[in-house]
Amino acid sequence: MTENKEELDELRNIKRMDYPKKDSEKQTHRAWWVRIKRGKKPHNKYFSDNKYGGEEQALAAAIKYRDELEKELGFARTGFEAFRRKTNKSGIAGIHKSLNTTHRKNGKSYSYLCWYASWLDPITGKRRNRSFAIPKYGEAEALRLAIKAREEAIENILGIKRPTLEWGKLPLDKLVEVVENAQSAYEKGRALEELIYVLFEGVSGFSVNDTNVTTETEEIDLVILNDSEDPRFSRESAILLIECKNWSSKCGKNEFVIFKEKIENRSNRCTLGFLISWNGFAETVTKEMLRGSHEQALVIPIDGETIKNGIKDGDFQKVLLDAWHRTVTL
User: Distance between CA atoms of 197 and 189, rounded to whole angstroms?
Assistant: First the structure.
């Protein structure tokens, strides 16, 4: 994955051109095309193989021109390098809530809140975004769709091809290595889901009923059938939900609230869910847990360090029971 980033960085704003010459069907014009845009002004220049003595020499000339031009114009950040602004309320880089206004043909205007996903095109330097209206999707689903849209856009920029992984094929220690060292958002999330799948399958009375469930309004990572004989879990619903977050940042209040809504949306057939955040939780999660402690739905947060310790000790069921106790006695 590092090679993808390095290649993107080396060839940013440079495109390979191979196309037939206008007056010949057999001859091909081969060149590197530098394209940089700042604001509304484009900067374009061709570096042909013939003029510079070959493809590699032409590329070297194009890179030199690009680098000099970027020093003059200023470097445009690519999408995966975007940072979280101080005004960002979602806690996630490139995701923000804003008011959108639609102007209708009859002259009337309609304003509504949206969750936006935004990123920067590495070729043009132009900001791209997608919006998801809260009145249409609901608060939680609009945010989820925005996060998903940005992740897919960044993966497309990096040229990431989503691999097909099989559940439970790697030992636990190797899965932990993948969880911690994966580069793309998809690989990180998929590896954590696989690790959690294997761990919950090993808990007495628990069995994974489904994975990556997509409904009309939401996605669910794992659905667990609860046939536990332990009194702490046996009193809970027959269906338990699991949400996995393998982000570089800590999981915050928004993700907690979204997951709790998924539990509540199961027609009162679900009362318990496990929110797995590999890199821990923000303080806002604890405050939200206290605020909603009187409600029926129970969300148990578990971080990566706790999971690794449980794997080391060889008793993941104890990890779940300890986490349950901490949550209900908060």
Answer: 12
